[in-house]
Design a protein that fits this description.
This protein has nine helices and eight strands. The protein is α+β, with helices and mostly antiparallel strands and 231 residues long. It folds into two domains: 81 residues, no CATH class; 140 residues, Jelly Rolls (Sandwich). It starts with a helix and ends in a 9-residue tail after the last helix.
Length: 231
C-alpha cells in the first residue's frame, strides 16, 4: 500500500492523473465541441506523462490521438462558422435542437424535406404507423380521435413524434385545416441518423418532450378525457 501511495503521489504522475480526469470528463460531454476540447487536453497531459517517463511508443500514440482530435475540432469549427440558416430552419433549431452544434444541425436539416401541404390533407391516420415525422412551420391542423376534434396544432409543433419514440401506432388522425408548410423526415432515415449522433438525438428528444407538454395542455383544454393521447 505504501508503495502504491508513493507512486500515486509522485509529482511525475500528476500529468497522468490530470489526463485521466480530462478523458473521463470528455466522455460526459454531450456537445461535440467540449468533448473534443477535453480529449485534446487529456492527450496533451498524457503525452507529457509519457515523455517524463521516457516511453516514446505511447508518446507517439498520444500524439496521434491528440492530432486526430485537433483536426476534428478544426473541421467542426469551420463547419459551424460556414453554417447559415433561413428563418424557418432557425425556428426548427430553436424548438428542437437547443445546444446542438451548427454543423450537426445542418446535417439533420439536410435529411428532411420541406413541403407545402394544402388544407384538408391528412398527414397522419389514427391506428397506423406514420411514415414520416413532421414539424409545422406555419399553418394549422386538427387532431381527431374516433372522429372527435380534440385539439389543434400549429407552428412549432411536431406530428408523429410519440409514434416515433414508442414504435407504436398513432392514437389520433391529424388533418390540415389551412395550407401548411412542414419539415418532414422519413422515419427510418431519421432513426439511422440519430443512432449515429447521440448528441442530436438527446436534443431532439428534449424538443419532443417540451412540445408534448404544450400539446397535452391544448388537448386537455379541448377535451379533458383525451389528456395523454396526442398524435
Amino acid at each position: 500500500m505504501q508503495q502504491f501511495l508513493n507512486e500515486f503521489f509522485n509529482p511525475t504522475a500528476i500529468p497522468g492523473h490530470i489526463s485521466y480526469c480530462l478523458l473521463i470528463t470528455s466522455m460526459l460531454m454531450r456537445r461535440m465541441l467540449f468533448l473534443r476540447l477535453f480529449a485534446i487536453g487529456a492527450g496533451s497531459f498524457s503525452g507529457t506523462y509519457y515523455a517524463l517517463h521516457g516511453d516514446s511508443v505511447l508518446l507517439f500514440w498520444e500524439f496521434v490521438f491528440t492530432s486526430v482530435n485537433v483536426i476534428q475540432l478544426l473541421i467542426l469549427l469551420i463547419e459551424n462558422r460556414l453554417s447559415r440558416f433561413t428563418p424557418e430552419e432557425q425556428t426548427f433549431i430553436d424548438r428542437a435542437l437547443r445546444g446542438v452544434e451548427k454543423a450537426h444541425a445542418r446535417r439533420l436539416i439536410r435529411l428532411g424535406e420541406w413541403r407545402e401541404v394544402g388544407d384538408g390533407t391528412t398527414l397522419i391516420d389514427e391506428d397506423t404507423t406514420p411514415s414520416h415525422l413532421y414539424f409545422i412551420v406555419n399553418g394549422a391542423a386538427d387532431i381527431r380521435r374516433h372522429g372527435r376534434n380534440v385539439g389543434v396544432v400549429g407552428p412549432g409543433d411536431f406530428l408523429g413524434e410519440m409514434s416515433y419514440l414508442t414504435g407504436k401506432q398513432a392514437t389520433a388522425t391529424v388533418t390540415t385545416v389551412t395550407p401548411v408548410r412542414v419539415l418532414c423526415f422519413e422515419r427510418e432515415t431519421l432513426h439511422a441518423h440519430l443512432a449515429k449522433n447521440p448528441e442530436v438525438r438527446h436534443s431532439l428528444e428534449g424538443g419532443f418532450n417540451r412540445n408534448l407538454v404544450d400539446k397535452l395542455v391544448k388537448i386537455n383544454v379541448a377535451d379533458p378525457e383525451m389528456s395523454g393521447n396526442p398524435a
